[in-house]
Amino acid sequence: MSSQATKTVTVATWTLTLDPLPSYLVCGDGAYFSGRLTYDTTGAANQTVKIQYCLYDKPNVCYDIASVTTDSQGYFAYDWQVPYTMGCKRYFFVAVHPASGASSAMQDRPVAFRTRISITAPDKVGVKVPFTVSGKLEYESASGTYSPLAGKTVSIYYDTTKLADVTTGSDGSFSASVSIGTTGTFTLKAVYAGEGLFLPSLGTISIPVVGEIPGYVLTAAGVAGVFAAVAVPIVVTEIKKKRR
User: Fold this and answer.
1) pLDDT exceeds 90 at position 57
2) Where in the sequence is the domain holding 45, given as residue range(s)?
3) What pLDDT score does 198 carry?
4) Which of 11, 27, 83, 92 would staple 106 via disulfide (CB 3.0–4.6 Å)?
5) Whole-angstrom Cα distance, residue 131 to residue 217?
6) Which three-class secondary structure string do you get for 140-206?
């Protein structure tokens, strides 16, 4: 006579998540990675998780950023300083649990360079009289080191009125002959709107426009930088690297 026995078996699975990263990463800034590893919905403690970046055109070619250990609830976190050598490219970022083979969804993110721009103009100008506005556009190619950014469009404004668009030369410099048709004291601006993986920047200087041309010409310069790719550039007095 036949017989049988049964037993319910639950097949548990490993699940690894990587919290959403910012829409882009910035060379020299901090990038904060966090997520959770679970086993059958329960946090997996004391497990090694690798955080990696993978080449955009070869997503199977990956390199370790760090190895971290999950806490008692399966959570992990790591604060990474983005190398300048990774600038101006796109990558995939992923978390991997080597012991089980579980991995998070890949996140496609660009790595951008910070830029800065300078502006120089006469100390005073005459109304409707042409004068020269010049400056230089650069990007931070290494920590504290700026290199020329050539072939980029810089827009010259006084207050909100555009005066000219110019293209930077091989040394990052630009120059334009402009004039202002009314008297007063205005904020002269050199604006780089940002292109591709170069972030926007803004330089400003205050310029009085008088009814008569002064008998001398002095120059003054102002430099400012931004570290967010926004539609309207933000002026800051100094460039600061942020870490989360």
Assistant:
1) yes
2) 14-112
3) 80
4) 92
5) 10
6) EEECCEEEECCCCEEEEEECCEEEEEEECCCCCEEEEEECCCCCEEEEEEEEECCECCECCEEEEEE
Task: Give the three-class secondary structure for 85.
Answer: helix
pLDDT at 219: 35
Residue entry with tokens 């976190």: 77
44 and 78: one domain? yes
User: How far apart (Å, rounded) are the C-alpha atoms in residues 182 and 13?
Assistant: 72
Distance CA 97, CA 18 (A): 11
189 phi and psi angles, rounded to 5 deg: -130, 140
How many other CB atoms sit within 10 Å of the CB of residue 84?
17
Reading the block at residue 46, the tokens are: 């004391």
Please tell me the pTM assigned to this model: 0.74
Average pLDDT over residues 68-73: 97
Strands 30-39 and 14-18: antiparallel
Q: Please report where in the chains the tokens 């026995």 appear, as a residue.
A: 5
Do residues 21 and 96 both lie within one domain? yes
**Where residue 60 sits, what CATH number does that domain have?**
2.60.40.730
